[in-house]
Amino acid sequence: MRKIKMTPYMIIALSFFTVIILGTILLKLPITLKEHGSLSWIDAFFTSTSLITITGLTPVLDLGSSFTIFGKVVIACMIQIGGLSVLTLTVYIMTLIGSKIGFNNRAILKESLNQNSLQGLVKLVKRIIMISFIIEFIGFIINLFIFIPTMDNTYHAIGVSAFHAISAFNNAGLEILGFNNHFLNYHNNLLFNINTGVLSILGGLGVIVIYEVMKKRSWKKLSIQTKITLKMTLGLLIMGTVLFKLIEQNQMTFLEVSFLSINTRTAGFLTVDLTKVKSLSIAIIIPLMFIGAGPMSTGGGIKVTTLYVMLKSLFSFGRGSQTLTHKRLITDETKIKAFVLIQSAMILIGISTFLLLAFEETNIQTALFESVSAFSNTGMTLNFTHKIGLGSKTILILMMYIGRIGPLTILHLIYSKKASNSNLVYIDEKIVIG
Amino acid sequence: MRKIKMTPYMIIALSFFTVIILGTILLKLPITLKEHGSLSWIDAFFTSTSLITITGLTPVLDLGSSFTIFGKVVIACMIQIGGLSVLTLTVYIMTLIGSKIGFNNRAILKESLNQNSLQGLVKLVKRIIMISFIIEFIGFIINLFIFIPTMDNTYHAIGVSAFHAISAFNNAGLEILGFNNHFLNYHNNLLFNINTGVLSILGGLGVIVIYEVMKKRSWKKLSIQTKITLKMTLGLLIMGTVLFKLIEQNQMTFLEVSFLSINTRTAGFLTVDLTKVKSLSIAIIIPLMFIGAGPMSTGGGIKVTTLYVMLKSLFSFGRGSQTLTHKRLITDETKIKAFVLIQSAMILIGISTFLLLAFEETNIQTALFESVSAFSNTGMTLNFTHKIGLGSKTILILMMYIGRIGPLTILHLIYSKKASNSNLVYIDEKIVIG
Ligand SMILES: [K+]
Ligand SMILES: [K+]
């Protein structure tokens, strides 16, 4: 009997799926839920997908009061697993227990981490995890100064501090405090805004970027990849903040608009009520969520580097010249990869929007917003996820899952059969475009 | 003094602009308007742009009762000029009056017609005009059988028949009959639906496709370009019809859904009230308008061939193979051109949607619909164009104009300076996508 040969794409897709299924079962356990049977299978599956893909959408109105302390620990662990990504963690555990890492596992890790070189991957994984835990620990300590003074129960405040450090750095955007609209109460708490904001930004930049900046301590020495990620992140944050303030004027404070701008980039925490903001702000949030965070980070979306390559391609096309960045060439292969990613993401979001409209009584604005939020693993909602049916839940589960493993992985999975005639030479065909 | 060297892109952009300005002045003439001064300059400019770009959006509630017979002739001529495209017509008139056509003019015509070869362009232009007029004449004769029996004034019916043959074949989508909701009264007139539908489809395929089919009379002998255009057009028409019928069920007859499906592909005539259809139907109309018609036709949008190349690229990327069509290779250059066109179109539509939301009290659904309708030169409206301010009118004028001359022309115009260092060889830079 021959073993089925698994491609890295299959392994990524299957391992995420396996962890989601395990998470679903954990969430349904009697010791996880305060009230036995209060969570349906589909809602457990939805919530598990949301946690592992660190999206933060959930049909459960109030996670805090639905789950036991054990349940909340499970949820925090699922976010952490999602954030470090299933494979990174698997490989790390494998090194801890001393097993050899073969070439195949490295190839998987390469796909999962989007790294171009196989060398030093294991070392890299160790670093990722170490730096993540250090940042989360610092965030936890600062959180203590925020939550202990504002809460009656100190033990509860400590738990909340730990949970929110994990949730913020992993861009999960979930709150689990046992009462509604919790974060809205902290909308003008400066320390809360800074700590949560910085944790989200750092997570969205990605540990590899943070590590490189710490090590090189000089803008000139940074890799082009890292320079692009830093510039685009800063530019988009400022753009979002300025636009939201211009649109909402006195309806939002400066703290609120900057927190909103940070969190559209797939963290997803909210200190404002989205159902009360203008349609114009929604029209800014949608593309910001779609663009998302850095390419090797806990954030989602198409990634800032993909946007950068796309924009560079448009400009150089207009000039009729090669596409250059920092005196290097962006190849046609890289450009096509960026375009294919953006186009397949948009087609998926279009189909999702259409299906949500088919299943629910809503308009294109809401259906599009929820689709982009799920796909980009942001998790913001226009008060939609709580009231949808089975069909819409299934759509959003699929969107969160595809958004996390990446539409390119899906394309490779669907069309996995080898091109049978790849050695033939074909004559070019000119086709009129536009 | 050195003459400024005009690129074909500049000439295309400027000639369309010049004709629009001339049209604006014509529409403001006392003999054009029934009531002197009843049309503001911005509305005249808007309507002129709409006619020359054969879009059909207009802030004038009832064109029929606002303009004199002379005015209606002017409007018909402007649609015809727009349809044949300003440059094609200019060159034809030049050949008629016997002047030599130099290489430069041919180069312009080449850009304007999207043709890859310079040879036989003048002959092609003559054919385009001859075939267009023959089809319009047949459409006019059939229209007589529709409008003479249903109208009191026979002379008026003859005028209406001529106007609507021109409006339908050129995918203008304008009606000018002197009373409101005229076409809605013909929603179950079989001959009207067939005649207007066939004229719109033929115009959307483009005269070059029609000519090739007439000449070769065999599927096998057709060019790949023509095969793709025919297959995509048929596929999209059937898809639209089936989806609209599934969505609207008994709310629309089969004749109504098929007429709607045909007209989303940038003709823009309506026999149903769009403000009463489901959001789900709107979510189908938007992408169909965006895709548009054939690449060398009176229709707008990104064009069916562009969509075809994009989809082929996605599939072949997933397979990790070359992009083939009909046993020929689609080059990376063609693929990038398609992606650049689609992306710049989407960015423009995004900016337009945002600005309409900034200027008007509306939602993303309506603002997006109107933006796509203007850009794709379809001219359908959710009862929006009549009530907007100066800012929104300017946005829609720009979108109609850019949609007609093409976003790629705009990209070339903005970045027209030569790449100064195009002979240098650059090192490739790998950038992580997604
Ligand atoms: K999130
Ligand atoms: K039209």
**How would you sum up the major sheet of chain A?**
2 strands, antiparallel
Mean pLDDT reading of chain A: 83
Count of helices of chain A? 18
Report the sheet-strand fraction of chain A.
under 5%
Broad shape of chain A: globular
Organism (chains A, B): Alteracholeplasma palmae (strain ATCC 49389 / J233)
Protein name (chains A, B): Trk system potassium uptake protein TrkG
GO cellular component, one term (chains A, B): plasma membrane
GO biological process, one term (chains A, B): metal ion transport
Mind explaining what this structure looks like?
The structure is a homodimer of 434-residue chains. Chain A contains 18 helices and 2 strands. Chain A is globular and about 70 Å long. Chain A is mainly α and 434 residues long. In chain A, strand 1 and strand 2 form a beta hairpin. A two-stranded antiparallel sheet of chain A has the order 1-2. The first copy, chain A, has one domain (8-411). Chain A has helices spanning 8-28, 41-52, 63-66, 69-84, 86-96, 103-113, 121-150, 154-169, 190-205, 207-216, 224-248, 254-264, 279-291, 304-319, 332-359, 364-375, 390-405, 407-414; strands spanning 324-325, 328-329. At the A-B interface, helix 11, helix 13, helix 14, strand 1 and strand 2 of A face helix 11, helix 13, helix 14, strand 1 and strand 2 of B. The complex binds potassium ion (2 copies). One potassium ion binds next to loops of chain B.
